[in-house]
Amino acid sequence: MSASDPAAVPPTVSVLSVNLDRGHHFSKHPAEEVLLVEGIGIEGDAHAGETVQHLSRKRWHKDEPNLRQVHLIHRELFDELATEGFEVGAGDLGENVTTEGVDLLGLPRGTVLHLGDEAAVEITGLRNPCVQIDRFQQGLLKAVVRTDEDGAVERRTGVMAVVRAGGTVRPGDTLRIELPAQPHESLTTV
């Protein structure tokens, strides 16, 4: 589903993997379940908190709201990257939730994703990848951040979100999409 065609709901939209890491490492480890805490993020994850937690931003923006509590990537990106010679799996790019069956990058800002029976996150923007991606696999940054001939930049490393409703999320949980009111606002980096 994309913002341009909100009526086209994929037949299977789900959570493929949930991942977390207590330290500030690039990749996150798959888990049997994660607990989302409203306004905070994923319990036990290094990026959980009401204010900015990412080390690259914390020094100058430590008192600003944390708009990057949960990172989501669609599994289909891994297939695209495989055709370009990269091996990437769930959690490898630091995402907390790996989804399947939804074009996350095509959703508008403010979209609420209901994960399982209880949890919900609101998309705040695009993830802005850094050079750590090339440390993971050389050349991957160029593969996930492209610039077209007109100079427009396309970022393909998922979306960031804040937790609007807490709850437990597990692989296999359903994912329901709630679009914001019109007019829709395109995603930018946060």
Automatic annotation (TrEMBL):
Residue ranges of domain MOSC in the record: 29-178
Gene3D superfamilies, sorted: PK beta-barrel domain-like
Record-level Gene Ontology MF annotations: catalytic activity; molybdenum ion binding; pyridoxal phosphate binding
Pfam families named among the record's database cross-references: MOSC
PANTHER family, per the entry: METAL-SULFUR CLUSTER BIOSYNTHESIS PROTEINS YUAD-RELATED, MOSC DOMAIN-CONTAINING PROTEIN
The protein, known as: MOSC domain-containing protein
Organism: Labedella endophytica
